[in-house]
Amino acid sequence: MRYTGKLAGGALGLLLGFGPIGAALGVLLGHQFDTYAERRDAGGSAGGDAALGELFFRATFRVMGFLAKADGRVSEQEIAAARSVMAQLRLTPAQVQSAIQRFTEGKQPAFDLDGELSELRRACAWRPDLKRVFIELQVRAAIAGNNLEGPVRPLLSRIAARLGLSPFELAQIEAALWFRGGGYAREAPGRSEADLEQAYRVLGVSAADSDRDIVKAYRRQLSRHHPDKLKANGLPESMLEHAKQRTQQIIEAYELIRARRGMP
Q1: pTM, 2 dp
Q2: What is each CA distance from 70 to 11, 34, 55, 159, in whole angstroms?
Q3: Which pLDDT does position 243 carry in this prediction?
Q4: Cα-atom radius of gyration of the chain, to the nearest Å?
Q5: Domain span holding position 245
Q6: How confident is the model at residue 204 (pLDDT cuts 50, 70, 90)?
Q7: Higher-confidence residue: 82 or 230?
Q8: Which among 95, 145, 217, 253 could disulfide-bond with 78, CB atoms 3.0 to 4.6 Å apart, if both were Cys?
C-alpha cells in the first residue's frame, strides 16, 4: 500500500493522540503540516514526509508483531491488543489490512529488528518526540497484550535505548499508561504504594524531591499538556479529548502525592 503525503501526515497526526508527548510534538506536527502545504502549493515534493509516514507506520506494526512473538507464540490477547491500537488510530479498512500485514512480517524469524530500528532512528533524527510516540504505542500494546511479562520488558528497554530514550523516559511512559488506566491499561491499579510511585513518575519526580519541586513539576506538566496550549500549538480538534484525559491524569497523580505527603 502506498502512502500519499496527505495520508502520511494524517497517520502521524493520529499518532499524536497517544500518551504524554507534550506541546513540543504539537509544534513539530503543526510545522510538518505547514511545510507539506507550502511544498504542495509551490508545486514541490513532499516525498520526505510521505516516506517518513510510511516508514513510521511500517515499523510500528512490525515491531509490535516482533514483541508479540517474543515468547515464541502470539496469543489471542496480544492480537486483540494490536487490533485495539489500530482502532484507536482510526485506520481505514485498507490501512488495517496493511497494519496486519506488517504485524505478520514482524513475527517472522527473518525480521531484522536492529535494521528496522536503525532506519527509524535515522528518519526521526531531528524528531525525538516521534520516537517517543513510537515507544508509547509499543508499551501500550504490550501492557494490554501480556502485561509486559517474559522477554517483552527487556526487549522494550533495548528498543527504547536504540532509539535514544533513557530508562527514566521509558519508566515514565509506562507509569503514565498505567496510572488510573487513562483509557489505556486493561484495568486501573488501586491506590497502593506502587500506584504512588507511578504518580511520582507521571510528574517526572521522585519521593525524595521537596514539596516545592513537586509543585513546580506539576505546573510544568500541566502547562505542557494543557488542551488549550496543545491546540494552539497544532493539536487537531479530534485529539483534544485525549489532551483532557492526560491533564486529568496529571491532576490525579498530583492529588495523590499531595494527600500522601500532607501538602496544603
Answers
A1: 0.64
A2: 26, 40, 22, 13
A3: 62
A4: 19
A5: 5-261
A6: confident
A7: 82
A8: 145
pLDDT by residue (tens digit) across 8-25? 444 444 443 433 333 333
Sequence-distant (≥ 6) Cβ neighbours of residue 229 within 8 angstroms: 23, 223
Residue type, 2: R
Segments in the chain forming alpha helices (H): 5-15, 22-41, 47-68, 76-88, 93-107, 113-123, 128-146, 152-162, 167-178, 193-203, 211-225, 227-232, 240-261
Q: How far is CA 147 from CA 69, 72, 167, 185, in A?
A: 14, 16, 18, 9
* CA angle in degrees (0–180, nearest 5) for 193-145-202: 35
In the chain, the number of structural domains is: 1
DSSP state of 109: T
CA atoms within 13 A on the CB side of 39: 15
DSSP 40-52: HHTT---HHHHHH
pLDDT surpasses 60 at 181 = no
Amino acid type, 34: D
Which residue has cell 489490512? 97
State the DSSP H helix or E strand holding residue 235, giving kind and residue range, or none if neither: none
User: CA angle at residue 135 from 202 to 255, to 5 degrees?
Assistant: 10
